[in-house]
Specification:
This protein is an alpha/beta fold. It contains 28 helices and 19 strands. The strands form 4 sheets. It has an 8-stranded mixed β-sheet, sandwiched between helices. A 6-stranded mixed β-sheet has the order 1-2-3-4-6-9, with helices on both faces. Bound molecules: coenzyme A (COA) and adenosine-5'-diphosphate.
């Protein structure tokens, strides 16, 4: 809806009303059409101001309407009517002007923004393009390079940047609507000819072809198969080369292709999934809306290795007091320097002061006595962590939440070492912790809902997408990674190369293939875990069977050679020198694989792309179904968010569980059956019962899986 009021005797004030973000639903669009018509027809109204209620201008098109039969007046003629008006129309932008919201503002003759407002055209992140004239008006207003940047990345700009770019005419620290009304009165009677952006010529550039070729190449590379960024470039190119009306036709045609694409559905699913994970629940029935977090003012980080440093930076940036504890003097000095450097670089980029004062450093665990919450990030060693938690239990004030950043150890066992196991949860960050958006909040059987709520809220404050998950080996993300990596190893044994496997996965859209990713994280990490599990040493007659199932010792053999990946300059690839990031094919590795196969009586065969993709992805997805079956993740959205934000899964494919639905659950089941039949000694390929059950119940869409899971659990 939109409300109309007459203010200052001559200004028609139109207020968009659709909580929480005034999205442009059919009712809001109808409201705008009606109120604009009214303002323009009343003689005593000399100018118009458009604003949004509750401090938000407009969050854009109503994404919830996308899947439905859309009704109500369309945006394009509505915005044209505003632009064509013979009375000045001023947009008063508070909070957000995003997508259709900014396009509406671009149709107005003037734009005034509050200094805290954010503006942008994020449609590309939803698999779309700004199709209400955004791709045609923005380049005319701010030039082609700046418009390309905003439209192809979807990034939001601050009011200050918007002013600098020329998107807004004025920025105010005071009441934006008052400022806009005052401004609207001051421009009454002025000619509007020079204020209609659609009539502007697109700023000329000397070598347009070279510019667009360069941008297109860059966009294709970073898009990893996403089609929307490419369409965005094409639409802006139309603005640069065609008259406005033809450009609008091109914008419409490109949008029509994107709108019905699977990618747009996947990205819109991701948008809602990212928000749905905040509404967490635990098998006990505890929920986000009935569990109150405790306020946290002071936090401690124990252990300042790579993870501890990143966590300290992320905490300091929230403005919390942080006590950072590291026992090794040299390591403490290095950490101090590294943390200050990270904070200073980040602050410089954002044009703010670095939050250095909020951190105090200590070598003594006693320094954490008065904190509200502790995050432990010492070596991944059960005996050491046990000792640390026993100490923390003795040192901390009563009620302090104790969290572990372990990526593999049993959170419940660690909780049992503390005086109050209900205060303990896992906070599993991803490296680098000040950059990566994902946080797994791991609850054990004894974790209290308040501990979960508090960790979830702290994660949110740190800018993380936090997902509450149950306690099991590897939690959700790493547990699913295990069968995926295992398949990649088996494919090497059977004739593939790391280049082939990574190529297929990167073509699919992964930020990095499995071998490149392993080289980056360090091959020794998995080796240590396998040694701990008693897997890394051959025990029986065959080196390729361990603990009764097929096993590939390839990773162990590389580690025995000191090839730990990027840090040693050699792993599945070679890197020129230790620490270099450029992976190059390694002839040594290829002959090593040939010798390994010969030694083990394996005959290399030609493996096609489809097999690589299906075996790696379906093994991972199958484990995802097991995780749902076990109640470790509450729903498919939780798993998908974990994979998109923590593991480089391409968001335009929605996440592994959404992808399984897109492929068709029956097909996933059939292929898993096929591969399990071919490899009966690989239990991960055996289709899990939840997948069978979903297929038997007609492969319902992903948003109905929770019902099937609930039924399954109630029958157990
Ligand atoms: N259409 C429909 N619903 C929307 C929406 C939109 N354009 N934008 C936000 N919402 C909903 C969210 O789903 C959420 O609903 P929920 O509470 O049921 O989960 C609610 O509004 C609040 O959104 P949230 O993102 O949690 O609030 P925020 O204050 O953190 O962020 C925005 C506000 C506007 C910055 C953010 O919601 C956003 O980026 N929205 C999308 C903007 C966009 O892409 N517009 C172009 C559409 S083509
Ligand atoms: P990563 O964060 O990459 O896993 P490390 O495991 O190397 O990094 O870092 C763990 C850090 O924890 C090391 O700097 C180590 O000195 C430190 N550490 C180990 N034991 C303790 C302890 N009891 N108290 C504080 N710090 C500790």
């Amino acid at each position: 809806m939109a409300q109309y009021t007459l203010v200052s005797g001559a200004v028609g004030l139109i207020t968009l009303q659709n909580p929480p973000v005034n999205a442009l639903s059919a009712a809001v669009r109808q409201g705008i059409v009606d109120t604009v018509e009214r303002a323009l027809s009343v003689p005593k109204v000399k100018s118009v101001v458009i604003c949004g209620q509750n401090g938000v201008f407009c969050g854009g098109a109503d994404i919830k309407e996308f899947g439905t039969n859309m009704s109500g007046p369309p945006l394009v003629p509505m915005i044209h009517a505003i632009e064509a008006a013979n009375k000045p129309v001023v947009a008063a932008i508070e909070g957000s002007a995003l997508g259709g919201g900014l396009e509406l503002a671009l149709g107005c003759h003037y734009r005034i923004a509050h200094s805290k407002a954010r503006l942008g055209l994020p449609e590309v992140t939803l698999g779309l393009l700004p199709a209400a004239g955004g791709t045609q008006r923005l380049p005319r207003l701010i030039g082609i390079p700046a418009a390309l940047d905003l439209i192809t990345t979807g990034r939001h700009v601050t009011a200050a940047e918007a002013l600098q770019l020329g998107i807004v005419d004025q920025v105010t620290d005071h009441n934006t609507v008052d400022a806009a009304v005052k401004f609207a009165l001051s421009v009454v009677g002025r000619s509007l000819d020079a204020r209609r952006i659609s009539t502007y010529p697109c700023p000329r550039l000397s070598d347009l072809d070279a510019l667009f070729e360069g941008v297109m190449q860059k966009v294709r590379q970073s898009a990893r198969g996403a089609i929307a960024p490419v369409a965005c470039v094409q639409a802006v190119r139309a603005a640069a080369t065609l008259p406005y009306t033809l450009g609008m036709e091109r914008e419409k045609a490109l949008m029509a292709t994107l709108f019905t694409s699977g990618q747009a559905h996947a990205l819109q699913y991701c948008f809602f999934a990212q928000r749905a994970v905040g509404r967490w629940s635990m098998p006990s029935g505890a929920r986000w809306d009935t569990s109150k977090p405790r306020p946290i003012h002071k936090v401690a980080v124990i252990g300042l290795g790579t993870m501890g440093r990143g966590i300290t930076v992320a905490l300091a940036k929230t403005g919390l007091s942080v006590v950072a504890v590291e026992t090794q003097e040299q390591q403490l000095m290095e950490a101090k320097q590294a943390i200050s450097g990270m904070l200073e670089r980040g602050a410089k980029r954002r044009g703010v002061a670095p939050a250095l004062d909020g951190i105090s450093y200590s070598r003594k665990i006693q320094a954490v006595a008065d904190v509200d919450l502790v995050i432990e990030a010492v070596f991944e060693d059960m005996a050491l962590k046990t000792k640390v938690f026993q100490q923390l239990s003795a040192v901390c004030k009563p009620g302090t939440f104790l969290c572990t950043n372990t990526s593999a150890l049993d959170v419940d066992h660690l909780a049992s070492q503390t005086r109050n196991p209900e205060l303990m949860v896992g906070m599993h960050f991803f490296a680098p912790a000040h950059v990566m958006k994902l946080l797994e909040v791991v609850y054990g059987p004894r974790s209290s809902p308040q501990a979960v709520a508090t960790a979830m809220q702290l994660g949110k404050k740190m800018g993380k997408v936090s997902v509450a998950v149950g306690n099991c080996r590897g939690f959700v993300g790493n547990r699913m990674l295990k069968p995926y990596i295992e398949q990649a190893f088996f494919l090497l044994e059977e004739g593939a190369t790391p280049e082939l496997v990574d190529g297929v996965l990167e073509e699919f859209g992964f930020a990095m293939g499995v071998f490149r990713m392993s080289d980056l994280s360090g091959l020794d990490v998995g080796w240590r875990v396998r040694k701990g599990d008693g897997l890394a040493e051959p025990s029986g007659q065959s080196a390729r069977i361990r603990q009764g199932r097929r096993y590939s010792p390839l990773g162990d053999l590389l580690c025995e050679q000191g090839r730990f990946g990027q840090k040693t300059g050699q792993g599945w690839y070679q890197y020129g020198k230790p620490g270099s990031r450029v992976a190059m094919s390694d002839p040594w590795l290829h002959s090593f694989l040939r010798e390994y196969r010969a030694r083990n009586g394996l005959v290399a065969r030609r493996i096609d792309h489809q097999e690589v993709l299906e075996r790696c992805l379906y093994a991972l997805i199958n484990e995802g179904f097991r995780i749902l079956e076990d109640g470790i993740a509450a729903g498919p959205e939780d798993i998908d968010v974990i994979y998109v934000f923590g593991y480089g899964w391409p968001s335009h494919r929605g996440g592994p569980m959404f992808y399984a639905g897109m492929v068709g659950l029956a097909k996933v089941l059939e292929r898993l059956e096929h591969y399990h039949h071919a490899h009966p000694d690989v239990p991960y390929l055996q289709p899990c019962s939840l997948l069978r059950r979903l297929v038997a119940s007609g492969s319902p869409p992903v948003h109905s899986w929770r019902e099937v899971i609930k039924k399954l659990h109630s029958q157990l």
